[in-house]
Structures are given as structure tokens and as C-alpha cells.
């Protein structure tokens, strides 16, 4: 991995930590935070591999106890709580968002950015987070879905739009994801 790649990974892990300074809004067992915006941006701007690594690094910082979650949370205990599934999904969400972004790179626009962020930043996070929430709190899947996903959809939609607009503008001004190289064929 190049030094530049390491810097990008560290930068987006730090960005996600800074987004944790935005006060969380408690709407039940899972708070609304700005940190999933960092997840979406990491995948959309860095691509699959570096986006995954940025959020994996962030989770390492959480695990060692740094207060990088809203309200100063951190430590191994959060990985046994109701939000554990959401947190553990973040690197995979960034990877999926990044993979879709890379796949659509030649025709990447706002529509593709929105699709990538909805699939990675919302669907992947909920697909892991809601079942873990149900398991940890002993809830039925329906109750877990209504308490662990439904209240967050409007906020997540806003974050999707913000991440998508930023990603499209970054692609135009300073693309971090490299264009796929075409194979050279002999005449």
C-alpha cells in the first residue's frame, strides 16, 4: 500500500471520528448519528479497499477505547451492545459503496452515487445492524426493524444526498479512485 493510500485511510477514519462529535439524537436503543455519513463518503471517495480499511481502522480506534463514538463512547463493550451490528457493518458498507462506485466509474454521476450510497450505506448497515439489535435485545424481527431502521430512514436519506453530491464533486475536482486501466493488446 502506498503512503498516499495510508493517508487517505487515516483521513477518512479521522473524518468518521469527527462526525461523532455531532451530538447524537436518541430515538430508542440506537442513536441517530452523523457517522454513517463518514461510512458513505469513505466508500464513495476512496473506493472499496481503502473505504473498508478506513472504517476498519475506525473500529480499531473504538475497540482500544478512544472516545470516538457520539457521547465519548468507545471500548470493547460497544461490540456487545445493541449497536454492535451497525458498527461491525460499517467497513463492509464502505466496501460495497466503493465497489459500486468503482464499477460505475466510467459513467459515475449523481444517480449512480445515490444508488451506491443507498445500497452500501443503508441496506448493508441495516442488514447487519437490525438482526444483531433483535438478538441482543431479544426483539422480534418486526420490532427490531421498526425501532432499528424506520426512525432513521429520513436522516439516512439526507446523508445519502450529501455523500452523493460530495462524491460527484470530488470525482470531478480531485478523483481519488484511479480510472481502470485498459489492457494493452498486441497488434
From TrEMBL:
Under the heading Pfam families, the entry gives: BioY
UniProt keyword terms in alphabetical order: Cell membrane, Membrane, Transmembrane, Transmembrane helix, Transport
- TM region(s), chain numbering: 55-80, 86-105, 112-137, 149-170
Coiled-coil positions are none
Question: What InterPro entries does this protein map onto?
Answer: BioY (IPR003784)
What domain of life does the UniProt record list for this protein's source? Answer: Bacteria
Q: What are its GO cellular component terms?
A: plasma membrane
Q: How does it sit in the membrane?
A: Multi-pass membrane protein
Gene3D superfamilies per the UniProt record, alphabetical: 1.10.1760.20
Q: Name one GO molecular function term.
A: biotin transmembrane transporter activity
Query: What family is this protein classified in?
Result: Belongs to the BioY family.
> What's the protein called, per UniProt?
Biotin transporter
The protein's organism comes out as Klenkia taihuensis
